Amino acid sequence: MIVILKQNPNREQLESLISWLQEKGVSIHTSIGEAHTILGLVGDTSKLDIDLIAALDIVEDVKRVQEPYKNANRKFHPEDTVIPVRDTQIGGGTLTIMAGPCSVESEEQVVAIAKAVKASGATMLRGGAFKPRTSPYSFQGLGEKGLEYLKVAREETGLPIVTEVMDLSQLPRAVVTEIPVLYEGEYALDLEEIARLENKTPEEIIKIHSGSDYYVYMLGFAPGHPYTARFENHFSFKRRETPRVRIPGGSIVVQLGLSDIIPFDQPCGWNIIGTTPILACDYRKENPFLLKAGQWIRHVPVDKGEFLEIKRQVELGEYQCRTYERGQ
């Protein structure tokens, strides 16, 4: 089912509609076009009252969609899907040519092919680091070493690289997830105190916190609550002497070399260094947890305007964290 909204729908009415639909167990894909905003509803919509939805002031039309391929259906998102990749993009009228070896076998091999690919006019280098094989005794690809060789080829040619993973367990080793963080005012309650304890300026503290990758070593305490650690340049302070009875969800809390994302309002004895607008646990999604053990994250400073815009996108289910290869 798709719900076509009128131009400039009332924000409160839209949020109320989305909340009501989610309570009915329906997932929502939001597509914002130049003329209309479309809500694509995925799940059991047979019990939804079309006439009731169509009667709402912000709704222009409601249609049922019979095709099973809803995620790729133009009725759900009529606008082109455009995926930016470094200095180029996939989609949006851009001709993107990806070329390279089926399997990465050595640094010399992939660098030589990358140079030939670029000279031939291709815009991206592809190469397999993880290779599926029928026989477990056959070459399975170089894995992480292959990724390192692809990085060298990228540095030599400037071409973005494309590779496939065979299993989700390989993905955390290959990418870092960026966590936007606002480090100011009421969103960073303990930043000044942290700076005093470390004998540094707040700007230096922010640079330290956002300048390293953090490893997610476990989830615990609350659903989706990631415990993360960096392995260098630790802070010296520990937890607060008196824990707070309640801190807001989204708080980024720290002590020593640890940094956690608080998924919900909860008690906590750690220091609040900033706040993220993204959700560590989002029950609207089939897989509600943002992170899992074995992944890497990096905190990225944002200003108040960026924070509020990301929060708006998160509330509408539109925001996707940026990811990139570790070591990039």
Total number of helices: 8
**SS-based class:** alpha+beta
Largest sheet: 8 strands, mixed
The coarse overall form would be: globular
List keywords for this structure.
eight-stranded mixed beta sheet; alpha+beta; 25% strand; 328 residues; globular; 8 helices
Describe the structure.
By secondary structure, the chain is of the alpha+beta class. It is 24% helix and 25% strand. The protein contains eight helices and 19 strands. α3 (107-119) runs parallel beside α4 (144-157). It is globular and about 65 Å long. The mean pLDDT is 85.
Topology:
Layout: E1 2-5, H1 11-23, E2 27-32, E3 37-42, H2 50-54, E4 59-63, E5 83-85, E6 88-90, E7 98-99, H3 107-119, E8 124-126, H4 144-157, E9 161-162, H5 171-174, E10 175-181, H6 191-198, H7 202-210, E11 214-219, E12 226-229, E13 244-247, E14 251-255, E15 258-261, E16 266-268, E17 271-275, E18 296-301, H8 304-315, E19 323-325
Helix pairs in contact: 3-4
